[in-house]
Amino acid sequence: MNLIIKSATIIDAASEHHLATKDILIENGVITQIATSIENSNNYDTISQENLHVSQGWFDSSVSLGEPGFEERETIENGLKTAAKSGFTAIAVNPNANPIADTKADIAFLKTQAFGNAVNLYPIGALTNESKSVDLAELFDMKNAGAIAFGDYQQAIKNPNLLKIALLYADNFDGLVLSFPQENKIVGKGIVNEGPNSTRLGLKGIPSLAEELHIVRDLFLLEYTKGKLHIPTISTAKSVQLVREAKAKGLNVSCAVAIHNLIMTDDELETFDTQYKVLPPLRTENDRKALIEGLQDGTIDMVTSDHNPIDIEHKKVEFDNAMYGTIGLESAFGALQTIFDTETSIQLMTSGKERFGIETATIAVGQQANLSLFNPEGTYTFTKEHIHSSSQNSAFLGKELKGTVYGIIHNQQKVVS
Q1: For residue 36, what are the domain limits?
Q2: What local confidence, expressed as pLDDT, does residue 417 receive?
Q3: Which is the catalytic residue, given 12, 287, 306, 311?
Q4: Is the pTM above the cut of 0.90?
C-alpha cells in the first residue's frame, strides 16, 4: 500500500510532530516521510479531507460480537468493518458468543476469522468454563493461542477462592485477569440503578453497593495474591475512590469506564426505552462527574464503548425482559468529544493498549502505519444512518455528538470514507 496523506494535523504526544500539520508518505505500509509538503512524484493515491487529523490507531478494550452462534446480532466480518469505519485499528473481543470462548480452539477460530483484516482482533478468553464461575478455563492454552486477557463478560466471579486461584495462576505467565464487579445476591432482580428514578418508575434497582462490595473483595484478593487485575467497567463514585486508594497502595489494578456511563444518567429511563438498559446501569449525575474526574486524574485507565449488539427480538420488548447492552463503536469518538478536548479524547482511546500487551506505533518515519483519521470539529445528531452494526441498539440515538471519523490506515489497508 502506497499513499500520501495531505495536510493532516498529527495528534500523538509521543511523536516529534505532535500538533503539527504535515503530509505523510506511506510506502508498503511504512511511514517513509513526514514533511510540510510532499511531492507526489510516483502518482500514489492521496487522502485529503476537510480539517484532517490523524492519531495512533484507537483501541477498544471491550467489544462483543455475535459470531459464532449469534450471527443475527453481528458477524466478525461486519463487526471489524464497523470498527474500522469508527476509527479503531484494534479491538479486544469478549468471549460471550455461543459457544463461550473458553478453549484454545475457540481463540484460534476468532483469530482465523479476523485474519487479513485492517482491524486487529484480540480475543479475551473466558476465565471460567462456559463463564459459569465454577472451574477455571484453559488459561495458559488460550494465552498461547492468542488470548490477551481472561474474564467472564458481565458475569461476576461468585467464588472468591476461584478468583484467588486465577490471579495466582495467571501471574505465572503475566496473564491479565478481568473481574466484572457485581455482587449478585445484592442485585437480586434489580435491572436499573437504585434511586429516586427507579422507585418512581417502578423498576427494581441495582444498588451502587453491589458493585462496590465486589470491588472491595477483589482488591483484597489482589493484595493477597500480588496478581494483575483489570476491572472492565466501573460506574459509581465510590468505585472510583476504591480504585484510587488501591493504586496508591501499589496494587497492580487497572479499570475502564463505558462511554455511555460518562454521558448519560438514569434520568434517561423516563421513557422506558430499552436502549438505556445497560450493565453496569446508568447511574446518577454525581457518579457521572466522579467517573470523569477519575479519568482526568488517571485513576481510570481507559474508556471503552462496551459495544454489545443485541438483535431486535431481544431488545424491543418489555423493559424487564430486554437484554442488557448498547452498541457504541460508531458513537465513541463523537461522544467523548462532547466532554473532553481532542488531545484528551485521543489519549483515552489509545491508552489501553499497554495494559493489554498490545504494541503501539508512534507516528514517525520507519514505523508501520497504524492510523486513525478524523475531523474533531462540527456537531451532528446521531441517527440510524450513522450505524454500521447489524444491530441497531444504540443508546446514543438522538444525541448530539462532535467530530467526524474518516476511517483508518492499518495492516497495509485503507478504510477511509
Answers
A1: 3-53+365-379+401-416
A2: 85
A3: 306
A4: yes
